[in-house]
Amino acid sequence: EALLKFDDVHVHYGAIHALKGVSFSVPAGKIVTLIGCNGAGKSTTLRAASGMLKVSSGKISFLGHEVTAGRPDKLVSLGICHVPEGRGIFANLTVAENLSLGCFIRKDGESIKKDRDFVLDLFPRLKERLWQNAGTLSGGEQQMLAIARALMARPKILFLDEPSLGLSPQNIEKIFNTIVKINEQGTTIFLV
Ligand code: ATP
């Protein structure tokens, strides 16, 4: 069953025609990877899928709902969560506060606590640094926090935009092992 589906999708940035008829689907439960050279349109594909960009033609659907630009919050409640390139964590907030912001739309207090324990077990580094400002974390730790925060929204699908960018080989291995673990817990992964 396709969780996410692109059907002949075109995206323009003004005069730049960045996506020219993209079609593919991401089956539920899988890890799907998009590979391409610089400027090929990988990040654009993710941004369109999470409702941050308007498509000029074609259709994106998630679980049968059409993905339209403008209401990314709606898509989060449907189960899409996007970890952008460059991570987008809040540098002046603590690790704990960043994690809380990841689940601000949820009302199920008890399971939020469980999910928080789960992500802190996945990333013990973050557990030791809950009260540290996120801006003072190392690059690898910031990437861990970005993924951990996304998981706090309990997504059905997780979009990861170059999570290995700028990390050491050891950290890259850790991040990828963790991505596999997250997938084994039932979250579909779409990775650039
Ligand atoms: P990389 O591997 O270098 O990150 P990418 O495959 O993710 O590349 P995109 O970031 O999706 O590539 O960019 C696709 C094309 O769209 C590029 O030619 C880029 O210059 C252009 N582009 C991206 N964002 C904008 C923007 N905000 N305004 C104008 N052009 C843009």
Fold and architecture overview:
- The protein is globular, with a radius of gyration of 16 Å.
- The protein has helices at residues 42-49, 72-78, 95-101, 109-122, 124-127, 139-151, 169-184; strands at residues 2-13, 16-27, 31-33, 57-62, 65-66, 80-83, 157-160, 188-191.
- The chain is built from 7 helices and 8 strands.
- With 192 residues, the chain is an alpha/beta fold.
- The strands form 2 sheets. A 4-stranded antiparallel sheet has the order 2-1-4-5, with helices on one face.
- 36% of the residues lie in helices and 24% in strands.
- The model has no long low-confidence stretch (mean pLDDT 91).
- The structure holds adenosine-5'-triphosphate (ATP).
- Adenosine-5'-triphosphate (ATP) binds at residues 13, 16, 18, 36, 38-44.
Radius of gyration: 16 Å
**Proportion in helices:** 25-40%
The SS-based structural class is alpha/beta
- What's the end-to-end separation, in Å? 21 Å
How many helices?
7
What's the total count of β strands? 8
Shape: globular
What are the main properties of this structure?
alpha/beta; binds adenosine-5'-triphosphate; 4-stranded antiparallel beta sheet; 7 helices; single chain; 192 residues; 4-stranded parallel beta sheet
Helix and strand layout, with pairings?
Elements: E1 2-13, E2 16-27, E3 31-33, H1 42-49, E4 57-62, E5 65-66, H2 72-78, E6 80-83, H3 95-101, H4 109-122, H5 124-127, H6 139-151, E7 157-160, H7 169-184, E8 188-191
Parallel strand pairs: 3-8, 6-7, 7-8
Antiparallel strand pairs: 1-2, 1-4, 4-5
Helix pairs in contact: 3-6
The protein binds adenosine-5'-triphosphate.
Adenosine-5'-triphosphate (ATP) binds next to strand 2 and helix 1.
